[in-house]
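**Folding the chain**
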Amino acid sequence: MQESLNAKVWLILSAVSALIFLLNIDYTAVNLALVSISEEVPADLNTFQWLLSGYVLTWAAFVVPAGRFADRVGKRKMILIGVSLFIAGSALTGLGYRIDVLIAGRILQGIGAAIFIPPCYGLIFDTMPPKKRSFGMGILAGVAGFGLAAGPTCAGYLIYYFSWRWIFYINIPLGFLAILAVILFVPKDSSNLKAPKIDPLGSFLLAAGLGLFMFGLNQIEIWGIRDLKLISMIAAGVTALILFWLFDRKQKNQTMPRHFFQNKPFMSALLAVTLNVYNFSLILVMMGLYLQNTLHYSGYDAGLIFLAMTLAIGLLSPIGGKLGDKVDIRYPIIAGFLCLALSTFLMSLLNESSSVITILSALLFAGIGLGLSWPTLNASMMRAVEPHEINTASALFTMATMVANTLGVIVSTSLVVVFGQRKLTTLLNEHSIILNEEQHTVLFSAINQVEHTAKQLIGLPENLVPKLLT
């Protein structure tokens, strides 16, 4: 009987791990595909940013209400609904030929992800024996980290041999296999109508507040920091979040329980992983653009270079989880952040003439740091809350990491635009090139693309165009 139970636990863990891997690999694969997508779907860099941040923003906005809802309707049902929506979003994105269609598909993917992530963590916590729960959570963290890091590599392979669209097409058969695995191996759970009800107003205020605030941040480079629309949107987002906080604190069944924020171990893990994910998103976006636009690597070659980080995360995540069980949990976390700091320092030294060894070293230390810290932080968070709070805790944890990722994407793409425009302004001044208003608009519009071409620069002074294309 015990062997049968162990086999069942492993099958469930495998099915959930496959879902987590599928979700996270698609999370980062798009970073490396931006240049390829821009060749078929015209848009500026700030608009393309919503292929990244639109996905994680909807994920972050809906994950907390979804975690609460899973307690009422059952984990298995929520997983199946979420995966189905994720598949539909993948199909829409893969088939799209306009940027708004692609963004809509990514948003649908994000909603699906928000629905099935909390019950996945809750399912593993319920299924695993008490002494193995930290191990199970560590496995999920390792799989998530490996999926995130493997995204660029897999994207490079698919782009090189097929098309960027296969990044999304591949989700369809894999998603159906995941649904089949859940149907076969995950037991049916009955609805629990006694569980806390969903608060529609609180959920709306939370989603609207996050959406308006993050969208406003995304528009800073387009509208300008003093633009009335921008100020109004950010102010509306902040107001909605404040109203949510004031309203939710008076509710009997709070969407975001206040005692979580008084739980020092939980909040410490939350802050640490938020910084972790923010750094990770900066690495993915900046390094992806650096390898392809600055060093002119193909998507496939850039994906191979990212293997240094991918393999390090995959190999070290299980080790990081075990270290957390055997030694003071702070040691692998501190070691991980030191490696991330070293990686960040090495990346700050990169330029047009940097060697592959330097690039690989920077990515390797990033992978080591993430592999040591991610599973340990995840296990630390789960240990800090009561068993019946796992769904809500994992939802809050996921929301914080998604917001951190969105901020990382926004900051990194904004930096690319700002420094690109400054470099061009310096270039114009050095060569005493004077542009009229129309030429100035064409120039900065072109440089704001993911990848600019000679066709976009027609009409500019002949001595300027070659400099822009080098």
